[in-house]
Amino acid sequence: MRTDCVLQRSLRRCCDFANLPAMRAWIIAAITATTVLACGSEDERPDPEPTYRDQIGPLMAEKCGSCHQGDAAAGGWRATTYADVIGCLPDGTSAVAADAAGDAPILRALARPSHAAVADTRAVIARWIRAGAPPSNSHVHPAGFLDPRSPESHGRFLRERRYAPMLDTADRDACGVCHEGAPARPVPEKAPAARATACTTCHSEAQGVSACTTCHGTKGKAYPPRSACFNPGTKADTTHAAHVEPGPFHMVGFDCKTCHPVPEAGRPVGVHIDGFVEVWGVGFSDGDKTCTNQCHSRRDAALPQPKWNESKMACNSCHGAPPTNHYKGACSNCHHDANADATALKGLGLHMNGKVDVGSGTGTGCGQCHGTGADPWPTTGAHQKHKTPAFSTPVPCGTCHEVPTSLAGHPRGTGVAAVRLLGLATRGGVSPKYDYATKTCSSVYCHSRPATADAVREPKWDQGAAASECGKACHSTPPPAPHPASTGCGAALCHNGAVSGGVLTPAGVLKHVNGNIDM
Description:
- By secondary structure, the chain is mostly helical.
- Helix content is 17%, strand content 3%.
- The strands form three sheets. Strands 1-2 form a two-stranded antiparallel ribbon. A two-stranded antiparallel ribbon has the order 3-4.
- β3 and β4 (440-442) form a beta hairpin.
- α1 (3-15) runs antiparallel to α2.
């Protein structure tokens, strides 16, 4: 027996007496007539339309959840929450968007042989879609309150109220009074209202409702554009990703605070939700949407004022490649991340890090460009053989190169190392020369003294060990006449203590090739 029928009979019994005033009789007659109209049998009353909370959600969990869940959900569609179910397929079409005939993508999928095992769900899901895919039969909120696409959505409602219901428990519409997971709950915290959906059911990021993705971005990406599925009018945006994500010019993305004021965690208030996009300290023009700042418009930039969402960056967009009056050598000679002709980057660890790094970024002084750490000696060619030779004192850099007294104007040149053989290289009245084409030295005091048939008189820069082999590289052992033919080099009469068994001693190394013939 239905409750309204019981009520109708009770009214008749309680109110059926003869001398009622006319008005009271009229009111009771009206109430009785109303209840009589509603008092058909149970079979005459249509079944209520299905809702996500009561029918579709449990059905999805039972029939669809095993395949359609997580980041690798089948078909790119999840059946975990209400927002997932009414969400979009990979082609951007809502799974529950019905056409003129009432057909929807989810219904077409259920009609395929691959879904035969769950085909029995199709009828109830079709009824649900025809009813507007309601989340529940609640009369507290409008029917579209949980659908981000609806004009009645809770997101639109909160934006219009400047998020006061979400943040203030004293607000007349405070979310936290009924819903668990709201940023602000009553103190002491009350139990949530019966059957009130927890906010974190859909807002499942670590920060819940207060996550950046709630307002701008998509799951896992807290930057625009918003989901085109739930925000059909959202504008295309590739520039945010170009800044926030690693890209062709930088290994690590830039923090949001580089360009915007970042709110206190969990409190999106103040300038953050004032209705404007606040861009601070980066030379951004609201009028033409251009940037003029340190990141762009370095010396000789080809694109000194890039336009938001329209400009495409290249190697010379921010600085010349190379800049005017810059050293003319290959970029890779000095900059670890650049390729030789400045057409691409071979590494990203040092690029756009706020510094002009030379070398590996670990050097100091001369070691920034050629060397390691504070050591100015390169590892190329015969540099190390001159730095720590096995048979002579170390060769100062100034023997082969002009050493700058400051970095002003240095480096300079045509892109090749300037070799100027001076000092020790000129002892004995020789005129040493370096051939850039063959990379060889000739007439150098350090080599071929005295000239012998088997001496390497013109050592090649990258010749290797042969260019410094004892007995051949500079002179034979012993040298030819007028040097004595004796092999007792270590005798007290000649090179006492400098040679032992035909090999230079540590003391002898310090006196060898020092510009003097020590006896």
